[in-house]
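Bench notes, afternoon.
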Amino acid sequence: MPRLIVFNKPFGVLSQFTGQASQATLAQWIPVPGVYAAGRLDADSEGLLLLTDDGALQHRLAHPRHKAPKTYLVQVEGNPAEEALAALRAPLDLGDFVTRPCQVRAVDEPDWLWPRTPPIRTRKSIPTAWLEMVLTEGRNRQVRRMTAKVGLPTLRLVRVAMGSWRLDGLNPGDWRDVSPPDRAAPLDVAQSSVRLRRPRPQRGGGD
């Protein structure tokens, strides 16, 4: 049976097992041979990353054709007006491509959210706000480009769900095995999970 892992990727960690000596990688957190990330999460983004040892499953989870919804919490600079939220929801022209319609709403900062290390840089004269964004695609730095396009630069980006898989209490650096989806089942079908103990990160070149 394919192995599938949910990992809460900390800030500054690459979504791969190799990198430069000065870069933190998945190898410092997940001592599991033969698994690879299904899709990517930028080093300066945090949160849910799926890993599997099955190439077909990796392709299915990552390919936009399957439209697995990805849910993000986004801290932005500024106060989001309804016009800006409407622009984010609608197809948005980013120059090299036009986004698919998505779900966007203003939310309060969750009380369960961990502090980021290092903290974000804010300006005292400019307020910040939180958005919940649900996308069915994931192009390079898409969320950051979208919010910048409507005048709301992203300060912090946390992916909290992908398909039916959620962080569900995982702290940064924690991971767990979950049941892989049936090949014929949609990716939004709930899966059972088994919690694993957090491995101690191996500090190599630092992060």
